[in-house]
Amino acid sequence: MGNTADRLRAEVLELVREYHEAAFTQQEFVPGRSPVPCAGRVFDAEELVHLVDCSLDFWLTTGRFSSRFEHEFARFFGRREAILVNSGSSADLLALSCLTSPKLGDRALRPGDEVITVAAGFPTTVNPIIQNRLVPVFVDVTVPTYNVDVRQLEEARSDRTRAVMLAHTLGNPFDLAAVMEFVRRYDLWLVEDCCDAVGSLYQGKQVGTFGDLATVSFYPAHHMTMGEGGCVLTDRPLLRTLVESFRDWGRDCWCQPGRDNTCGKRFDWQLGDLSCGYDHKYTYSHIGYNLKLTDMQAAVGVAQLQKLPGFLSARRANFRLLHEGLGDLQDIFVLPEATAGSEPSWFGFPIAVRPDAPFTRDEVTRHLENNMIATRLLFGGNLIRQPAYRDVAKRVVGDLGNSDFVMNQVFWIGVYPGLTRAHIDHVLSVLHGLAHHSRTSAR
User: Domain 52-255+281-296: which topology?
Assistant: First the structure.
């Protein structure tokens, strides 16, 4: 029976490879008629083979592919622990929530404590602060790095400040030297949101290895994909246990799915007001969630991870082509700059339309979209201007002038590995055409 199953599995997987070749043929790019996405999935037959191979096990929760991916992804980052979850947003939620655990003693975050973050960012870097009844303290960013203005950190700190939670914007590392000096001086937690920054380096070291915890997203737009999915990284076994607890309903037990009695004393614990010997698998130490991912998602991730070095090289190359190609338009566009001492693995190419340019940002993005070139704004702009945050308890440092500039003047275009030189050349041609027409009309 086993031999028959193995033979049929091999036949199925070979057919999957043939299917990929027939179903996913690359289309010729026609400038102005073919889309230039700002992001997207890049895959070959191996992702499909891994996905089908996993489905044939019919092990629907985390399993062998999840364990393999966690081990290999932690090794890629050089961190001890990698904990898979169902999205990058969940990773952010779990990374901050675990810091509220009473098991951290005096270092646990408590309602009313403050967490420093930036106003110009993505909501799910900020939302866990609010969801845990903590107070976000918003500081500004610098242009054109679009990262935290570290000069404001001292002003942002108060006696209630307990943590810093920041993202590496569009893959560009924030000033980790300054931030690390700040958090060490005041014994603060640091959560690095690396959802847009897998593979980015700061002073030759991977981002995601500086903070107490780091988060990653595997949404299709990101550096590698599982469709949905995310990960929390840490070097501390206790933090891993806490993240898993909050991820897995808040349970105290740390057994993997399908396993029992890892601790060796499943019926010997006495916790809370429960009777001694209450089943540890049904003992809950936190107010948690169910944020696990499926093994089929992890199977796709295992295949994607093998391609990651090539993905990173392609992103950097596409960014370089755009930066060099737009160098003569800096009188109307502000081009992005890498943080000093960093080597970003760019998620996108941010462009700021100068206030005195002959056109508005809206006109630029509409022109690009009309030419089949996808654009995105820099996430939520200034988040405190968003309706969801209007009545949230918060502190704001300064006037957030650069965050407003981001909100009104900045957009970004793609650098992802699915773009070829032909795509990039089309983007450059369209932007130069717009600039030439606008300059001519202004005379």
Answer: Aspartate Aminotransferase; domain 2 (3.40.640)
Contact between 333 and 352 (Cβ < 8 Å): yes
DSSP state for residue 331 in the 8-state scheme: T
Is 367 an active-site residue?
A: no
Measured CA to CA, the distance from residue 408 to residue 388 in angstroms comes to 19
The domain locations on the chain are: 52-255+281-296, 256-280, 308-442
Cβ neighbors of 373 (< 8 A, separation 6 or more) are 36, 413, 426, 427, 430
Please give the biggest Cα pair distance in the chain.
85
List the catalytic residue out of 50, 168, 222, 423. 222
The alpha carbon of residue 309 and the mean position of all alpha carbons in its chain are separated, in whole angstroms, by: 17
Instruction: Per residue of the chain (443 residues), give pLDDT as tens.
Output: 579 999 999 999 999 999 999 999 888 999 999 999 999 999 999 999 999 999 999 998 889 999 999 999 999 999 999 999 999 999 999 999 999 999 999 999 999 999 999 999 999 999 999 999 999 999 999 999 999 999 999 999 999 999 999 999 999 999 999 999 999 999 999 999 999 999 999 999 999 999 999 999 999 999 999 999 999 999 999 999 999 999 999 998 777 766 777 777 888 777 788 889 888 888 899 999 999 999 999 999 999 999 999 999 999 999 999 999 999 999 999 999 999 999 999 999 999 999 999 999 999 999 999 999 999 999 999 999 999 999 999 999 999 999 999 999 999 999 999 999 999 999 999 999 999 888 777 65
- Secondary structure class of 354 (helix, strand, coil): coil
CA dihedral angle for residue 354, residue 357, residue 360, residue 366, rounded to 10 degrees? -100
Q: How far is CA 182 from the centre of its chain?
A: 23
The Cα 270–Cα 278 span in angstroms is: 7
309, 315, 321, 327 alpha-carbon torsion, rounded to 10°:
-130
CATH architecture for residues 308-442: Alpha-Beta Complex (3.90)
Q: Which residue has the tokens 């037959």?
A: 45
Q: How far is CA 14 from the centre of its chain?
A: 34
Q: Which residues pair with 205 in a beta bridge?
A: 202
Whether 386 and 10 have beta carbons less than 8 Å apart is answered as: no
52-255+281-296 shares its CATH topology with 308-442:
no
d(C-alpha 417, C-alpha 313), whole Å:
8
Phi, psi for residue 337 in degrees, rounded to 5: -130, 140
Q: Please tell me the pTM assigned to this model.
A: 0.95
Six token digits for residue 402: 């650069």
